[in-house]
Write a structure and sequence with these properties.
Layout (H helix, E strand, L loop, with lengths): L13 E10 L2 E9 L2 E5 L2 E3 L6 H13 L1 E15 L6 E14 L9 E8 H5 L9 H10 L19
Parallel strand pairs: 1-6
Antiparallel strand pairs: 1-2, 1-4, 2-3, 2-7, 5-6
Length: about 160
């Protein structure tokens, strides 16, 4: 006979990706409307089911900025509780190189524009930053934090759908 005791809910943080795309001393950023506020963030977003972390980072950057990028390194993994929605977030931050831009490509809903900003300009945004992870990612990259992309792996499997 099966145990009738219900299983407790398993904690599931939001898994997100972000890209630090540098061009000299400038970084690719997005200006977006979130919950009625205009904020700035790196190109970033949620991992989709069946998607690799690397593919998600490249996809989100293209969808939010119109820029095609090549990932170079994993900068790091950050854990944070969002002040926006109160949920836990696990964020994988990547360093990427810009390859090309499609300026006429429509951007994701809520994205006002993509822009290039210096670190000082980004730091000066204060409360207009989407999260403290924006500067943390840039500062880790500036400090030389680089992990090989090979440190990530994807193992397909699980039940068929």
């Amino acid at each position: 006979m099966a145990d009738p005791t219900p299983c407790p809910e398993i904690w599931r943080p939001h898994v997100t990706v972000a890209c630090v795309v540098a061009d000299g001393d400038r970084y690719l950023m997005v200006e977006e409307e979130v919950a009625g506020r205009l904020v700035c963030n790196q190109p970033a977003g949620h991992l989709e089911d069946g998607e690799t972390l690397a593919a998600a980072a490249v996809r989100e950057t293209l969808e939010e900025t119109g820029w095609t990028v090549a990932l170079q390194h994993l900068i790091g993994v950050q854990q944070w509780r969002s002040s926006e929605h109160g949920e836990a977030v696990i964020r994988f931050s990547f360093a990427a190189r810009a390859l090309g831009h499609a300026p006429d490509r429509p951007l994701d809903t809520g994205i006002r524009r993509a822009l290039w900003m210096t670190r000082d300009d980004i730091a000066g945004l204060g409360e207009r930053l989407r999260s403290p992870l924006v500067l943390a990612s840039i500062d880790a990259w500036l400090a030389g934090q680089r992990l090989p992309l090979s440190s990530l792996s994807w193992v397909p499997g699980g039940p068929s759908r």
